[in-house]
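Q: Given only this backbone (207 positions), what sequence would you predict?
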């Protein structure tokens, strides 16, 4: 065979081989599937605390110290009760601080009796025996032209305090109502009034 023919055959064989290789298809490149997007966990609902509007109700206390007006009102009541008990005229009153009770001296004619009453001044708890008035005492009581209750009300308007006692007495040759009022600091104020018209003559500290 001639060398040129042999060369042609070799070229043909090589071409066929290359053609066979060209029919082979390469495997597509493997691609990773995208990972699913990570979802964030659902946020837990936030609880908002609403400030409580409930407030403790303030209940007014009914206790506590008695006001001067309360004791003084009870004194006036005690006088009225004592006068009705004996059908007479009250000429003196005393408050017993130990027992918070009242003693009212009542005049009936030329005699006086002492009426004991409870704290409210509404109930009589006892009556002492009658005593005869001497001339001087009778003259002092006869000079009064206003009642004991009227004298107390004038004194209460003149000075603060809780009634301790009150009576008709001779003060420096003057017949007067003497009203003693207890103070919060344990002192005492005395109010002197004319027995004829209730004019305030003097207000003084009685230490």
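A: Predicted residues:
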């Amino acid at each position: 065979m001639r060398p040129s023919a042999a060369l042609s055959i070799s070229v043909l064989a090589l071409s066929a081989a290359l053609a066979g290789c060209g029919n082979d298809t390469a495997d597509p490149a493997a691609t990773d599937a995208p990972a699913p997007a990570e979802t964030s966990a659902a946020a837990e609902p936030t609880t908002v605390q609403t400030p409580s509007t409930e407030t403790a109700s303030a209940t007014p206390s009914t206790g506590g110290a008695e006001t001067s007006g309360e004791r003084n009102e009870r004194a006036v009541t005690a006088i009225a009760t004592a006068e009705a008990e004996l059908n007479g005229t009250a000429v003196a009153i005393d408050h017993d601080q130990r027992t918070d009770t009242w003693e009212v001296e009542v005049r009936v004619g030329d005699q006086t009796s002492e009426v004991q009453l409870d704290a409210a001044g509404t109930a009589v708890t006892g009556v002492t025996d009658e005593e005869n008035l001497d001339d001087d005492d009778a003259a002092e009581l006869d000079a009064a032209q206003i009642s004991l209750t009227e004298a107390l009300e004038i004194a209460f308007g003149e000075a603060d305090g809780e009634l301790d006692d009150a009576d008709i007495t001779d003060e420096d040759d003057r017949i007067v109502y003497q009203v003693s009022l207890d103070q919060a600091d344990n002192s005492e104020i005395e109010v002197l009034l004319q027995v004829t018209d209730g004019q305030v003559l003097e207000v003084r500290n009685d230490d």
